[in-house]
Amino acid sequence: MSQRIADLISKIAVPVGLTFFLGQSAIYDVPGGKRAVIFDRLSGVKTDVIGEGTHFLIPWLQKAVIFDVRTKPKTISTTTGSKDLQNVSLTLRVLTRPEVRQLPKIYQSLGLDYDERVLPAIGNEILKSIVAQFDAAELITQREVVSARIRQELSRRANEFNIQLEDVSITHMTFGREFTKAVEQKQIAQQDAERSKYLVEKAEQEKKAAIIRAEGEAESADAVSKALAKSGDGLLMIRRLEASKQIAETLARSPNITYLPNGKGGDGEEGSKNSLLLNIGR
């Protein structure tokens, strides 16, 4: 009895296992952000592009090739010469993705690593041709124009290979040692020129200020002379009295100054004389 059961299980197990294996081989999944292309051993690459989800194929006879159709970054670097024969090192960052409808053609002509086969080659070609049209100084001052020209030409060439460029930007740009040194020397010379210009302008302003000050003093002296001529010696006497008053106040505040009367008192001439100030400090 047990032998019959074992024979029955062995007879069932083989077909069931084979059926399960074939069923698993006939099902494939296409994840999100990807597409599939079917390769048939008899007819070659089929023209249909399979979308996301679970799909069926004929085991062994057909194979699903999965493409990532999401936008991917790619870096392209090159060293070339400018129009004025200066060495320039450029680095581009491009965002690329394949043309979904042309995936069968891309697989036939380029394979899964289509971006590695195409972008470095056409990127170096475009960079060298565009950079050669600008001087080194223009590459710095007209960077947006250079970037736009590179984007336009690179997009045109990439479309020939059914590759779409979402964005192209220059992330790094350096020049040779000689050009960098020349730029530094030019900047130093410009700074020295600006400093010299500032000193000249400062001297001119000081000269004008001195002239204005002298003119003011001359006008003031002229006004004083006219006042003296008009009022006589009265103004001078007032100035003398004010000066004497200031001197007396200064001496009065000094601890080393004493006051000794010189006159004999009364209303006579001797009493009207100025007092005598003597310094008794040591």
From TrEMBL:
Q: Where in the cell is it found?
A: Mitochondrion inner membrane
Q: Give the GO cellular component terms, alphabetically.
A: mitochondrial inner membrane
User: From start to end residue, where is composition biased (Polar residues)?
Assistant: 273-282
Which processes are annotated in GO (biological process)?
mitochondrion inheritance; mitochondrion organization; mitophagy; negative regulation of proteolysis
Ranges for the region named Disordered are 262-282
- Please report a single Pfam family linked to this protein: Band_7
The keyword Transit peptide appears for this protein: no
Enumerate the spans annotated as Band domain.
Answer: 26-187
Which CDD domains does this one have? SPFH_prohibitin
Q: Which domain of life does the protein's organism represent?
A: Eukaryota
The record's SMART domains line, in alphabetical order, gives: PHB
Do the record's keywords include Membrane?
A: yes
Q: What is its main location?
A: mitochondrion
Which keywords does this Swiss-Prot/TrEMBL entry list?
A: Membrane, Mitochondrion, Mitochondrion inner membrane
- Give the family, as the similarity comment puts it: Belongs to the prohibitin family.
Question: How does this chain assemble?
Answer: The mitochondrial prohibitin complex consists of two subunits (PHB1 and PHB2). The subunits assemble into a membrane-associated ring-shaped supercomplex of approximately 1 mDa. The mitochondrial prohibitin complex interacts with the m-AAA protease, a heterohexamer composed of YTA12/RCA1 and YTA10/AFG3. The mitochondrial prohibitin complex interacts with ATG8 and the interaction may support mitophagosome assembly.
Relate the protein's function as given in its record.
Prohibitin probably acts as a holdase/unfoldase for the stabilization of newly synthesized mitochondrial proteins. Involved in mitophagy; may act as an adapter for ATG8 that supports mitophagosome assembly. Negatively regulates the proteolytic processing of ATG32 via the i-AAA protease. Acts as a negative regulator of the m-AAA protease.
Recorded protein name is: Prohibitin
What is the protein's species of origin? Spathaspora passalidarum (strain NRRL Y-27907 / 11-Y1)
Organism taxonomic ancestry: Eukaryota, Fungi, Dikarya, Ascomycota, Saccharomycotina
